[in-house]
Amino acid sequence: MKGALAPLRESNFRYYWLARLIDRAGTTMAGVALAFAVLEVSSSASALGTVLAAQSIPLVVFLLAGGVLADRFGRTVVIQVTNVASGLSQLAIAVLVITGTAEIWHLAVLSAVSGTVTAARMPALAGILPQLVPRDQLKPANLAVAVPENALMVLGPAVSGLLVVAAGPGWALAVDGTTYLLAALVLTRVRIPRPVEGRQRKGVAADLREGWSYVRSTQWLWVVVAAFFLLNAIVSGAFATLGPVLATRTDLGEAGWGLIRSAQAVGFLVCSLVLIRLTLRRPLLWGMIAIAVQGAPMLVLGFQPLLVTAMIAAFAAGVGSQIFGLGWDLAMQEHVPDEMLSRAYSYDMLGSVAAIPIGQLAFGPLGLAFGIQPVMIVAGTAYVVVALLPLLSRSVRELPRATTVSV
After folding, report:
1. I need a surface site. Which of 26, 227, 273, 390 has the fewest CB within 10 A?
2. What pLDDT does 240 receive?
3. Which residues span the domain enclosing 16?
4. Residue 302 is part of a domain; what is its CATH number?
């Protein structure tokens, strides 16, 4: 544990860690709350898909610009500005929902604002860690962030589900908006040098071309990103969009759906603690095997939506997702040059999330046409197959750790 906590001795990392923790405390409640806020206004699965797509479409459109902004102007500044914007948009949604004046178009417009600023923040968040700790502390630094965040994710969805039942979804969204603002305040204590002037004088188009050239020439990177183009479309459409609707139409209910999401977070937490002792010498090999387990909750909900079995499947999916998440971050942070990292992450994120709006918009009508549970079964099966396909690439199977570590 001494080695695992070593990154917290770095003051920049410590304040970043605290800001992430505050932010996550609200964010873990927001997904459940927003879903049921929409369903409170309209019980239609298509309406929920529309609001979720309104958030994810700007996310797709502006991700590449977010990578350029982070590499050009500094990752800390970008995170602070976008946190403030996200906090204000979430508080606006909360006020509309609490006062009972929300309409679907209100939620869609404000979700689009949230998606736009999130697009700018994500590459900065992903690329900042190597600037905060020495290279040989990247693994414990990633886990130092993951462990408390996962602990919060255990409670957040369940608390959100209970809060939705007791007081309404608007209050959970208000908590999320407030934590964004608090996190931005804490980040003012992080001190990272601005990018060199040579980088600032480059044009945006040149930065984008440089990033694309790197991604295109790095086989393990584009192979995994291509797989997640499909994987994220499936999970966002089948699990995140149809899942809450199925919960409201079965004995699971809103609280049960929150417990399922919390079980997934328990898997994250348990796995992140275990990973402190493991090296992951082939981070992408084990990561792609593990992420295939994400198909299990969809299969369980499709065959028999019972709370206990769904929670067990969600727990296993959480374990698999944490293994992949750590493996992918280590691959990116150790093998991609720092001056290219945010742009590489932005292309990664763009490829990974580009199909999410398609999934969110398509799975509602598919559920209506063929039934939610049959669609869940097909989606879960497809997820497992697509997750394992990248292992046909030798560059994915054999990518090693770039540094020798003792933890």
Report:
1. 273
2. 85
3. 6-398
4. 1.20.1250.20
